[in-house]
Amino acid sequence: MKKTLIALALTFGSATAALAADIVETAVQAGSFKTLVAAVQAAGLVDTLKGPGPFTVFAPTDAAFAKVPKEALDALLKDKAALTKVLTYHVVSGKVMAADVKAGKVRTVQGQELTLGTTSGVTVDSARVTAADVVASNGVIHVIDTVVMPR
């Protein structure tokens, strides 16, 4: 009985700690979003994504950023306006859990629309959601395997 209570306390404590982290902190803690976090810092979007939200972030992993040609990624990281446009294209206002995703268009914070698909898993434009519903205190992260680019 005592071991069960300790396990429940540890689980509850971990869940509380996870919920206390905002989107930026959650991405940093995950460890697979180093490029995304560096890009968010370069674009000056840290305070925004630490704000009250709620936000839904379609977060490309480091492996997704590795698919972008190095010259193109380096140029993007040096162009704050273009970088901001790309990053905010990955963000939707509100907290949309995977179970609530419907196929169709959704307006991004950047202003253009993403196309969501639900036929064989969830897709976002040309990207596939590889992990969903990573909850943060100010929204949710859905991990994607490709950096999506606005038109």
Automatic annotation (TrEMBL):
Keywords: Signal. InterPro entries: Adhesion/Biosynth-related, FAS1_dom_sf, FAS1_domain. SMART domains: FAS1. Residues 1-20 form the signal peptide. Residues 20-148 form the FAS1 domain. Gene3D superfamilies: FAS1 domain (2.30.180.10). It holds the Pfam family Fasciclin. PANTHER family: PERIOSTIN-RELATED. This is Putative surface protein with fasciclin (FAS1) repeats. It comes from Sphaerotilus montanus.
